[in-house]
C-alpha cells in the first residue's frame, strides 16, 4: 500500500513540474497572433500564385497585417478583395486595375514557315534542345507550357501560337514564368492595343521569317501624340502609363502587328 501511495505522489509531483514547465515555456515563447492576419487570409483567393510578389497568400496576409503591403496588393482578387481587406485594416482601398496576360507573338502557321512537327515536347525542353519550330527564333514555340500551368484554363494554342482568353485571365503571372522565351507579359486590362512581336532583328531579316513581324519602321512612334510608343532594338513597345488608346499607331502599322489583343 505504501508503494502505491509513494508512486502516486511521485507521478503527481512529476505532473506538477511538467505542467509548470509548459506554462513557463508558453509564456516565455508566446507569440501574439494578429487576428487581422487571419481575417485577411480568409479574404484572399488562395491561388498562392505569387503574382503579388510574396511567396503565397499566407505571406501576403502577414505582410498586409504588419503594414508592409497595401490592402490592394492581390492582383487576382482585384477591387472586391481589396475592399474587404481595407475594411479589416481600417483603410480605404482604392480600386486596383487588374492585369491580363498577352503573348508577344503573331507568328501563326500562315505567316511563318514551319520547320517541323515535334511530338512529346514542351517549350522548355525545346529551348534546351535548341529546336526552332518556325524560322523565327524569337517566336512562340506552340507546345503549350503556358497553358499547362494556367489554373483558369485561360491560355490555348491556336495555329501554333499561344493565345490568352482575356475574360478568363486573372493576371496571376504563372504563364509569364513558364514561357522560356519570355514572350508573355502582364498589361493593364483596360489597354486594348498591343505589339504582337518579340523579334529584335532588322526589318529585312524579320520579313524573311515572318510576314507579321515588327520591322522597326517607326511609323507608330511618329503618330503617337502621347510619347507612349518607342522603338528600341528594332522592336516597338508601348508605355502603357502614357497610352491613351487612340489607336493611331495601329492604324499606321504597315504589317498590322500593333493590334487589339486576340481573345478579347
SSE arrangement, N to C: HHHHEHHEEHEEHHEEHE
The number of helical elements comes to 10
Largest sheet: 2 strands, antiparallel
Q: What structural category characterises the helix and strand content?
A: alpha+beta
Strand content: 5-15%
The CATH topology label of the largest domain is Alpha-Beta Plaits
Number of DSSP E strands: 8
| Rg, alpha carbons | 28 Å
Strand order in the sheet with the most strands: 1-4
Tell the overall outline.
Answer: elongated
Distance between the termini: 87 Å
CATH class of the largest domain: Alpha Beta
- Name the CATH architecture of the largest domain: 2-Layer Sandwich
Mean pLDDT: 85
State the helical fraction: 25-40%
Brief summary:
The protein has 264 residues and is of the alpha+beta class. The chain has helices spanning 2-28, 35-43, 57-65, 78-89, 123-129, 145-149, 174-178, 203-209, 219-223, 248-252, and strands at residues 99-103, 155-158, 161-164, 184-188, 194-195, 229-232, 235-238, 258-259.
Amino acid at each position: 500500500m505504501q508503494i502505491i501511495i509513494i508512486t502516486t505522489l511521485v507521478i503527481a509531483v512529476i505532473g506538477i513540474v511538467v505542467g509548470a514547465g509548459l506554462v513557463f515555456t508558453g509564456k516565455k515563447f508566446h507569440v501574439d497572433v494578429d487576428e487581422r492576419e487571419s481575417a485577411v487570409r480568409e479574404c484572399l483567393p488562395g491561388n498562392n500564385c505569387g503574382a503579388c510578389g510574396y511567396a503565397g497568400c499566407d505571406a501576403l496576409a502577414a505582410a498586409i497585417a504588419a503594414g508592409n503591403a497595401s490592402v490592394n496588393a492581390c492582383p487576382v482578387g482585384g477591387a472586391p478583395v481589396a475592399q474587404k481587406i481595407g475594411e479589416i485594416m481600417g483603410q480605404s482601398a482604392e480600386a486596383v486595375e487588374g492585369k491580363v496576360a498577352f503573348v508577344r507573338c503573331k507568328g501563326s502557321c500562315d505567316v511563318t514557315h514551319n520547320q517541323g512537327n515535334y511530338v512529346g515536347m514542351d517549350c522548355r525542353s525545346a529551348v534546351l534542345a535548341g529546336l526552332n519550330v518556325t524560322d523565327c527564333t524569337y517566336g512562340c514555340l506552340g507546345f503549350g507550357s503556358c497553358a499547362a500551368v494556367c489554373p483558369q484554363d485561360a491560355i490555348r494554342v491556336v495555329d501554333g501560337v499561344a493565345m490568352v482568353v482575356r475574360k478568363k485571365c486573372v493576371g496571376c503571372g504563372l504563364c509569364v514564368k513558364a514561357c522560356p522565351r519570355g514572350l508573355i507579359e502582364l498589361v493593364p486590362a483596360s489597354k486594348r492595343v498591343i505589339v504582337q512581336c518579340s523579334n529584335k532583328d532588322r526589318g529585312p531579316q524579320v520579313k524573311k521569317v515572318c510576314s507579321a513581324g515588327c520591322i522597326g519602321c517607326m511609323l507608330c512612334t511618329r503618330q503617337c501624340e502621347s510619347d507612349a510608343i518607342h522603338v528600341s532594338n528594332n522592336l516597338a513597345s508601348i508605355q502603357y502609363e502614357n497610352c491613351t488608346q487612340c489607336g493611331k499607331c495601329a492604324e499606321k502599322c504597315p504589317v498590322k502587328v500593333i493590334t487589339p489583343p486576340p481573345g478579347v
